[in-house]
Amino acid sequence: MNPSADWQQLLQLALLGTRHGGGAPVPTLPELPAPPDASREAQVLRSAGALGLLQRAGYQAAAAAEAPPAPAGPETQPTLGPQGQDMLRQLLGGHHAEVLPDYLRELARHGRRVPHRLLVSLLDYAHGRPELRAATSAVLGVRGAWLLGLNAAWAAQYAATTDDDATWDTGTPAQRRDYLLGLLPRDPARARALLAAALPQEPARQQAVLLGTLAARPDGLLAADAALLEPYLASKSRDVRQQAASLLVRVPSNALVARLWPHAAPRLTLKKPLLGAARLEVGLPEAWVPAWQADGIEPKDGRFSGEKAAWLGQLLALLPPARWAAHFGQLPTRLLTLAADGEWAALLLTAWRHALQLHRAADWARAYLVLQLERDDVPPLPADALAELLSPAELAETLLAQLPRQPRLSQPEARWEPLLLNLPGPWPAALTEQALRIIDNTLTVPAAGPRYTFHYRLTQLLRHMQLVVPPGQYARCAEVLNPLREAETALNNPINQLLDTLYFRQQLAATLTEPPGPDS
To answer: Nearest 5°: phi and psi at 470?
Structure first.
């Protein structure tokens, strides 16, 4: 019996009417059974009277049979100070919510935690937002971890970040994947054993997902991973075969690269004639060899144009690009330029673009980025791949070297614009200065077309700068942007948002070193 819940159910029945209550049962009291011939209306009135008497008599529920949970242990980290607590409350209330993930990460980096009074608000806010899980779990402290165990909904979201083996046995596919991702850096042998036991019973789609967790290990794949991966080259599933091949070629001194290289090396030659420029020549395979499929080469691949080109393209995409630099004795910049200048540019650039991402070849990524910024005919690397392979400082340095002397948004879009709009932070002061020059030049220097054609892209740039420009550069942004309000009033709102966010982030940064405040 729960008088409070029963009363709410009675009110609903009374409002809807007993004929329209959806057949919901009428709450009854065990000590006051309804007569067997009583109408539904009579039961409602009888129960309402009984519950009303219970409330007036001061009814108290029976004591819980289960023992209360043990109290949380003492905290080991300092909490936020009063100003930080107030600003975190604003973030959880939706004010500048886009800043919250970075702020939580900064809290963890400074060894601070969320105060007890805001733990429930944070856990409620982060629930259903898996992108906040890692940042949230790092600042919960002892009391927050204790609270997770008292709420099933919260615990389910954070289960994969714990060492509970039950997550692997009974968790959802996403939780089991995350469990492996957490286990691999700590105990790769155990993670490999769990995979070896579970994969044969999994459907093909889940096999590919679980195998893919091996690629996320921070120190790369291990030689011992080869024995686990080799059998899946013969899988009936194309996705599983390709996943296994893409992992095997990254295993140190693996046999797959040794098998593939003799097929690839004769197909690509560097010609250096006495007269004329050097060039890369390509020899396509003459016919399909069924045995190739067991080495990760499929009969068809939509990334490449032409059947024979697809066979060779897959082969090149699997091999480490460093092999070609060593084979030809050329730097990545030279080989990529030769590829872009030749008749096989589409094939070679597509294959090497995938290979450098697969093997995380930072030197090839830098060379490719310079090439894509210089030439309109080079397909660009995805922004997320660049962010994974190169640091923000490297990306900023490359972009700054490629910007024109008087940068401005143009029509058609310049090659450097997408990179600028996706460049992660924190930006160096030189890049912020160039972004401000781009905005100023676009708005004040006469152009062939009307300024409103650039409003959308200027708004994108201003919004991106909210999160990547360091808050210490607020004063310089205000100095440049405030006079531009009169040049283009339509941009007043995004300019205000940028300056307001930078000022708020400046205040947030100060809370990271503020003396701790009370927990409750």
So the answer is: -60, 140
3-state secondary structure of 113: strand
Distance, CA of 258 to chain centre:
34
Cα separation, 295 vs 262, in Å, equals: 13
Contact 368, 381 (CB under 8 A): yes
DSSP state at residue 512? T
267, 285 contact by CB (below 8 A): yes
Residue 90 has a CB neighbour count (10 Å cut-off) of 15
Q: Who's near 386: CB < 8 A, 6+ residues apart?
A: 365, 369, 395, 419, 422
Burial class (CB in 10 A: 0-12, 13-18, 19+), 512: middle
**DSSP three-state, residue 281:** strand
Q: Residue type for 106, please?
A: E
pTM for this prediction:
0.79
How many helices (DSSP H) and strands (DSSP E) are in the chain? 28, 2
Residue written as token pair 């894509």: 372
Residue 316 sits at φ, ψ, to 5 deg, of -65, -35
CB 104 within 8 A of CB 129: no
Per-residue pLDDT reduced to its tens digit, 226-259: 999 999 999 999 999 999 999 999 999 889 999 9
Q: Facing residues of 271 across strands? A: 279
Quick: pLDDT tens for 335-371: 999 999 999 999 999 999 999 999 999 999 999 999 9
| Tally of CB atoms within 10 A around 303 | 14
CA distance 501 to 93: 15
The two structure tokens encoding residue 472: 């210490």
Residue 362: count of CB within 10 angstroms of its CB: 14
| Helix (H), strand (E) at residue 322 | helix 321-328
What are the structure tokens assigned to 25, written together? 């049962």
